[in-house]
Design brief:
The chain has six helices and three strands. The protein is mostly helical. The chain has a three-stranded antiparallel β-sheet.
Length: about 130
Amino acid sequence: MARPASEYPTELELQILKILWQASPRMVRDVRKALAEQGRDIAHTSVITTLNTMVRKKFLKRIKQGNAFLFSPRVTQQNVSHRMLDDLVERVFDGSAASVMLSLFHGALVDPDELKELRRLINQKVKEQSP
């Protein structure tokens, strides 16, 4: 039995989306070249197959130009990251944003400037939600 299609991009699909979010539309050869520059040198036909799969999943749109197709994202980076993060928070942390933050602080060194920015954002969020 075939595995159902994920509503989230695979690792390769996410890498392609990042390339297209930087600059689009792009032809298959341009996407393949960008992937190779990132250390992922895969066959031209594999890139075509993946791009077409992403069109079917509605992650990308394609426009025919001459003999080639141009690909561009149909989804925004913000939308994809929010959906994936929301899913992770719900499935792994039972919906607790505090648990996510504690896990992040526990597992990584946080730059002092980043901590100041996080404090500013938290204070702003508290003000927004106060009656």
